[in-house]
Amino acid sequence: MRLVSFNGQRIGVLKDRRVVDVTGLAPGDDLQWPPVLMIRTIARFPDLAAKLAEVAKAEEGIPLSEVKLAAPVQWPNKVIAYPTNYDDHITEMRSSGRSDRLGFFLKANSSLCGPADPIVLPEIDGREVHHEAELAIVIGREGRHIAVADALSYVFGYTCLIDVTVRGSQERVMRKSFDTFCPIGPAIVTSDEIPDPDALDISLRVNGELRQNGNTRDMILGVAEMISLASSVSTLQPGDVIATGTPAGVGPLRDGDVVSMSIAGIGELTTHVVQGAGGSNKAFETR
Ligand code: MN
Asked: CB 28: neighbour CB atoms within 10 A?
């Protein structure tokens, strides 16, 4: 099943290029704050799945072009991210770090945005802002100290994620946490449709030009290992997002760019880039 958030927090099932509105079956209302209706739906999914599938099959749905897609999860407990998880990206960054030795970092939840929201570039003198195309894991149920062998049973689904990053020496968390620096979507594809998440083609184009082209089989830590490692530190909650690192080919984004990433079997996330005002601070005065 492919789940989307649209027109705010409304919940939809995506079929072909149409969205079936299933908000009425979700456990809560779509105007609640904080916006956690999808997370509640994920937490209750084992009880809801059959009914959602039935309604999705019976109803025609609305054309995708008539809805505004939002981030499929908007207010997760956390966004975990693994740096330097592909050898070819480590080489291009001349990095000495590897995900299996560094572990993970966090990206501000408030950096999440949806396919319809532009990536807004901050004004920071002399800095590049790069795209990093990543497979995102969405957690389905609570867990701590999860064994690698059990880890995939904690996955709700997968989606596309762009880990937008200001290059520089400052803390990763600050460089990667600007508002709109974490586009995700368009849909969460439930894990039953993705039998092997460690063998997916992943690519990203800017204005039609191929920039990144990899496969998740080249990840240093695989999906199950990343879940297990993260859960050794933090209790994972339904709706938590894990960004799994990026293959080689990262590069600068500029005002007016159209960015499109795709993952085989999961979908295509297309967004655009605009130049914003402000966003620099004293820390960025140091190279
Ligand atoms: Mn990244």
From this structure: 16
